[in-house]
Write a structure and sequence with these properties.
Helices cover about 35% and strands about 30% of the residues. By secondary structure, it is an alpha+beta fold. The chain has three domains: about 1-75, no CATH class; about 85-175, 2-Layer Sandwich (Alpha-Beta Plaits), CATH 3.30.70; about 220-280, SH3 type barrels (Roll). It starts with a helix and ends in a 5-residue tail after the last strand.
Length: about 290
Amino acid sequence: MKYSIRNTLILILTLLLLVGGGYFYVINRFNTDIEEAEMERDRLRSELQGVQQSANMFATAQANYNDALYKRLNHPKELFRSHSSSGLYNYLQELNRDITFTQLNYSLSDSVLQNDHGIINVNIQGEGRYENLVNYLYRLEYSRPLIQIRTVQLDNITDLERLDRVNFQVSLGAYYRRGDWTNYRADLEPSGPLGEILHNPYYPLIHEVPPNTENLPNVDTSRLVVLTGSRAHIIDQNGTLQRLNIGDRVYLGRLTSISMSRGEAVFELNRGGIRDRVVLSLQSTN
């Protein structure tokens, strides 16, 4: 056998002895530590899974908490502390702001008396946006104080400047306590976040076109004569040269854009609820 092959075999055998001896030494010397480390790893892995499950349940728990808190603040119903017209007035005014604001006039009449409670009769008249009125009634109905909404009467407004508003009359009964109410709570919280009112059924989709009382340029009878980068020069219905910047008002609308390359001025109009787009060009009248 050649010396080189013999030496190679001896080195391989020596290496195997070292690796095998080292492995058996580590197993015998650190076997307990390895087992404890594996047990700790399994414990931490199980704990991590529990934490992840708790994190996944947090959103649901938070929603349940908010729902329970809302119910706690607003239910059950409670009565006003006493027969105080000023206190009731202040409460109604406190609700009447921001997205519930309307112009109100109050009329409070004599209360109806029972053995353990009384009822203050309230009549409200006013004008406001339909969406705000609905939000106001929602808060009256669902807040903690016991207020009964008896009747609601609505009338639409035909004035072109106030088509999104309504006249209303509301009859209420506000309950207050009489006699012994030892468990009465003094804080009367308003209701929580309100929903979005998407449509006002009293707003006419098609309505009368207002007259041109301000003598604004009428693009239907005007002619475009000159364009610059941000200004359109037109001859209006009266034969007068008008210089309009983007965003300037015209009869029923505004100048919205100018295209120098096409030689056009674009106007967006509202013809009594019908949206219209009118283009004046240098090549034609309309």
